[in-house]
Amino acid sequence: METILSVKNLKKSFGSLEVLKDISFDLARGEIISVLGPSGGGKSTLLRCLTQLETIDDGLVAVDGDVLFGDGKYADKANLSRITLKIGLVFQNFNLFPHLSVMENITVAPIRVKKMPKVQAQELARNLLERVGLSEKADYYPCQLSGGQQQRVAIARALALDPEVLFFDEPTSALDPELTGEVLKVIRGLADRRMTMIIVTHEMGFARGVSDRIIFMENGVIVEEGPPEQLFTAPKNPRTRDFLSRVD
C-alpha cells in the first residue's frame, strides 16, 4: 500500500521533559490508525507536532513523499504551506470561530487559503453539512449548537480543505455521553469512505471497530502496535494488557 505519512525517530521536549522520545510509524493511504494510551503519554503532542502546532526537535516527517521536517529543519515556507494543506486536524474543543456562522466557519479557509470563489465554497459547505447531518444549521452560530453539533461542524470545516490525512485529537472527550454517538457516527462514515485518519481516542469499542491498526503509546514511546483484534484480545506487552484491562 502507498505510504501517505512517514514518521521516523520523532522527538519533542519541553525544557527537560522529553515528551516524544523516538516515535516511528508509517500510515498508508486509506488506513485508519487509532492511538491509545494513558493521559500524558504524548498522544496529543504527537498530533500537534505533525500539524505544526508544536515545533519538532528531531526526526523526519514526510507527507505524500514531501519532507515536512528533516535534517533538523522544516521545509521552506512555500513547500511547508503546500504540505500543510494535505493535513487536517479536528480539535478536542471544537475551536470554531464564535463570531462566524456555521457557513462562514466552513467557507473561510477555502476562500482565504485556496482562493475558492465564495459561491463554490458555499456549495461545498452545504454538501459537507449534509454529510454530517446539519443541513439546517448553516446560518446558526456556534453558541446556538450543542457540543456534538459543534464538533460535527468542526469535522466539516476540516474536510473543506480536502486534506489527504485527517487527525482527530480526542474528538469526543469534551462531549456529554449522549452526544458522543453522533460524532462517532460521522467518523464511522468517513471510515466507510476510506478517509485516511489518525484518531487519538479513549473510546475503546469505537477504536476496535473502526481501525485498521492500533498504536498504544505511553511515556513518549510506542509500546505496541498491531491489528485491533490482536491488540485487544492478545496484547504482547504487559503494559498494554494492563491498560486495556483497566478500561474495559
Shape: globular
Spatial strand arrangement across the major sheet: 7-8-9-3-10-11
Low-pLDDT runs of 5+ residues are none
Strand elements, count:
11
Round the Cα radius of gyration to an integer and report it.
18 Å
* Structural class label: alpha/beta
Largest sheet: 6 strands, mixed
Order of helices and strands: EEEHEEEHEHHHEHEHEEHH
Q: What share of the residues lie within helices?
A: 25-40%
What is the rounded distance between the termini?
Answer: 32 Å
Number of helices: 9
Present the secondary structure layout.
Elements lengths: L2 E12 L2 E12 L3 E5 L6 H8 L7 E6 L2 E5 L2 E2 L2 H8 L2 E4 L11 H11 L5 H14 L15 H13 L5 E5 L7 H16 L4 E4 L3 H7 L2 E6 L2 E6 L1 H6 L4 H10 L1
Parallel strand pairs: 3-9, 3-10, 7-8, 8-9
Antiparallel strand pairs: 1-2, 1-4, 4-5, 5-6, 10-11
